[in-house]
Amino acid sequence: MPDLLDRAAIRLDAVAADRDEAIRQCGHALVGVGAVDASYIEAMVERERSVPTYVGEGVAIPHGTLEGKDAVRHDAICVLRFPDGVDWDGHLVKLCVGIAAKGDGHVRLLSELAQILLDPDSARALRESANVDEVVRLLQPAAEEVIQ
Question: Each residue of 108-117: pLDDT tens digit?
Fold first, then answer.
């Protein structure tokens, strides 16, 4: 089974002009590790238009629509850090954790990620980290919980 968090899907110096570009970059990261087909990218943008994915603490968790699940090959997350931030409907987002999940896997994954990302110290560490190994370590509890 592929890793839920592939190191190749972690980008710590991303730059985006706006929310939709940031979401598309997340989608491309998921495509790059073979987790999704390219059609999933627009499903992520569409999801954002109907249900915002900003969760607070400078973090957004973009993911696709239910219809987009057909484009998911395997569950995966990507992590994109935007050091200069991205305007996300009036919120400054510095960290995007993109999700691709088959079936109902996204519900459990969102729950696990929320516990980590809504903790101010953990969220700050992720927003400020410039080290891939640290990002993996910080998100490992969510990845391990979902795999079990």
Answer: 777 777 777 7
CA distance 134 to 41: 27
Q: What is the reported pTM?
A: 0.88
- Mean pLDDT calculated for residue range 3-17: 93
Q: Among the options 63, 74, 91, 106, which is catalytic?
A: 63
DSSP β-bridge partners for residue 96: 60, 80
Identify which has the larger pLDDT, 63 or 57: 63
- Secondary structure of the chain in the HEC alphabet? CCCCEEEEEEECCCCCCCHHHHHHHHHHHHHHCCCECCHHHHHHHHHHHHCCCEEECCEECCECCCHHHHHECCCEEEEEEEEEEEEECCEEEEEEEEEECCCCHHHHHHHHHHHHHCCHHHHHHHHHCCCHHHHHHHHHHHHHHHHC
The rounded distance, in Å, linking the Cα atoms of 72 and 69 is: 5
106 is catalytic: no
Residue 128: its H or E element: helix 120-128
Give the pair of three-digit tokens for residue 124: 């700050």
